[in-house]
Write a structure and sequence with these properties.
Length: about 220
């Protein structure tokens, strides 16, 4: 081998190493981004930038009238009222809260007493002069359908199609459009020790059977 060919081989080898190193670091960067967006969601976090937004319980009412009617009588549906001065006075006093204070604009309370607070298209404290923002906030005050089932802007269209065609469906189709599968973490994002009145325990199976809404068997779903 001449000096020239050795030099050429060294340069080629160095380039190979550089390219290998670059692609390795790029892969790591991609992997890191992916793991960030897959972090578990907690109340007040956004929905990972999926672009879905919250439509309010009224949009579900026409098709799920029984669930809506019974949900409407629950404490969760009316959770915003609890933040108004003069309500739940006994509980507030017991837990070191001021029963005469207006907590309806307190971010520390809204993340659990509204629907989608802090998430894209979720509850936001409205400017009282902005009528549109006030109306949107009214729709998302309290713990609405979408606090458990996920932001509805897209999956409502899937439900409409299933409703009109009366066809069978697999639930994965709804999940793909932003509806969430419900498990204990759907509740413990709010039912946890960050709440000033939390009793220290939350029994998912028991709580699921009481105080959510009337349950109606599904007829079009295929397993
Ligand atoms: C966005 C937050 C949030 C989520 C998610 C949530 N809850 Fe709640 N829940 C609340 C709040 C706030 C209250 C209290 C409402 C009030 O009294 O103002 C409550 C009250 C309740 C109550 C009534 C308790 C009582 O003392 O009468 C039950 C039952 C309940 N939740 C069950 C569940 C279950 C089961 C899930 C999950 C499937 C769930 N919740 C998900 C915030 C939430
Ligand atoms: C981490 C979520 C979370 C936060 C933050 C939170 N709450 Fe709640 N709140 C709940 C849940 C869940 C319940 C119902 C079950 C319970 O008491 O744990 C509840 C119940 C209550 C109740 C009892 C209602 C009743 O019917 O007796 C009051 C009062 C209350 N919250 C006021 C507040 C105020 C005021 C703030 C802000 C300073 C606040 N909460 C912040 C989740 C939260
Ligand atoms: C506090 C959480 C929570 C809220 C709020 C909530 N749901 Fe549900 N919903 C559930 C749970 C839990 C189930 C049972 C899911 C399971 O076991 O897989 C369910 C089931 C359903 C089902 C399936 C059929 C049935 O009745 O079981 C429909 C439809 C439904 N909910 C609609 C609604 C609508 C509409 C609203 C608002 C008016 C709403 N839900 C509010 C938790 C909630
Ligand atoms: C145009 C009618 C329509 C609207 C609006 C609608 N749905 Fe549905 N939804 C349906 C139909 C139809 C089914 C399937 C019912 C069956 O299988 O019996 C369904 C099923 C569901 C289920 C059960 C999914 C499963 O298989 O576990 C949930 C939860 C649900 N809807 C929640 C909602 C929520 C929350 C909203 C509002 C954001 C909403 N729906 C709006 C028609 C609708």
């Amino acid at each position: 081998m001449t000096h020239k060919t050795i030099g050429f081989a060294t340069v080629t080898f160095a380039c190979f190493i550089l390219i290998a190193w670059l692609s390795a670091t790029t892969d790591t960067a991609v992997a890191e981004t992916a793991s960030v967006s897959m972090a578990p969601l907690v109340a007040g976090d956004d929905d990972g930038g999926t672009g879905y937004s919250y439509v309010g319980a009224n949009k579900c009412k026409m098709c799920h009238i029984k669930q809506h009617k019974s949900w409407n009588t629950t404490k969760m549906a009316n959770a915003m009222d609890t933040l108004k001065p003069g309500t739940a006075a006994e509980s507030k006093t017991k837990h070191g809260l001021d029963p005469n204070k207006d907590y309806t604009t307190d971010a520390a309370c809204l993340k659990c007493h509204t629907t989608g607070y802090g998430a894209d298209g979720g509850y936001a404290i409205p400017d009282p002069n902005d009528k549109k923002a006030v109306r949107k906030a009214e729709k998302l005050a309290g713990v609405g359908c979408e606090a458990c089932h996920g932001p509805g802007s897209e999956y409502v269209n899937v439900h409409k199609d299933i409703f009109k065609s009366k066809r069978k469906y697999k639930v994965e189709e709804m999940y793909a459009a932003g509806m969430k599968k419900i498990d204990a973490t759907s509740c413990t994002s709010c039912h946890n020790d960050q709440g000033p009145t939390f009793s220290g325990e939350f029994d998912y199976n028991k709580q699921k059977e009481v105080g959510i809404h009337e349950r109606i068997p599904l007829t079009q779903r295929e397993d």
